[in-house]
Amino acid sequence: MIAYPDIDPIAVSLGPIAIHWYGLMYLIGFVSAYYLGVYRAKRSDGLWTSEQVSDMIFYGAMGVILGGRIGYILFYQFPSFLDNPLMLFRIWEGGMSFHGGLLGVIFAMWMFARKTKKHTIDILDFVAPFVPIGLGLGRLGNFIGGELWGKPTDVSWAMIFPGDPLQLTRHPSQLYQFALEGVALFAILWFFSQKQKPRYCVSGMFLLFYGIFRILVEFVREPDPQLGYIAFGWLTQGQILSTPMVLLGVGLLIVGYKLQRYPQK
């Protein structure tokens, strides 16, 4: 067993204002995405400008925050929402859904596409390689906050999380997700997109590999207590939501390489 590091979940305190590591990680993720986007824009042969990247990150941030919150309520707290719809606005209680955030970003990029007259998929293909940074940092925030831990295990690197009422040794599944959804996914997408790829392909790779990684980690992650297992004694909500991503990712790759269409100015 490895001792869980004693890290204060509050990164910065300014009087009555407390900034948690989870929120700080999101901020770092958006800033990192901006600078990587500017780097790629300068090498895009005029397809992108720094100003467009800045606007795109703003739209994306709004999509993540609003979509993530709405998705969490609808995907994971829907019965409670029906009883009390105002819980949607209790953001101080926490609760974000990646899949809701993804839908929020897609909608935001569609709005941004209308503003810039770009193809929505071209925007999603451009932004996809930057997303894993925020995903990985978000999982680190979960780990520091001692939340979303894994299932009980006796592996040598298991940890006891302070907030676990059962005080069992568990998989540090947040770190698995950091490694897969953050580091590995970023490496795959960054190198895959170094050379211009047909439209749909970068987005397809993102959906495919995120879906695979999420499905795998769900096998060692404790299911959400209000939902438990959906079926078969092992199927989780995260796996249900991620399976269509894998299928859609494969479909986008097939369509992309078949059509061989590229972004245009």
From TrEMBL:
Record keywords: Cell membrane, Glycosyltransferase, Lipoprotein, Membrane, Transferase, Transmembrane, Transmembrane helix
An annotated GO BP: lipoprotein biosynthetic process
Binding site for a 1,2-diacyl-sn-glycero-3-phospho-(1'-sn-glycerol): 139
Gene Ontology MF term list: phosphatidylglycerol-prolipoprotein diacylglyceryl transferase activity
NCBIfam families with a match to the protein in the record: lgt (TIGR00544)
HAMAP family for this protein: Lgt
UniProt protein name: Phosphatidylglycerol--prolipoprotein diacylglyceryl transferase
Lineage: Bacteria, Pseudomonadati, Pseudomonadota, Gammaproteobacteria, Oceanospirillales
Encoding gene per record: lgt
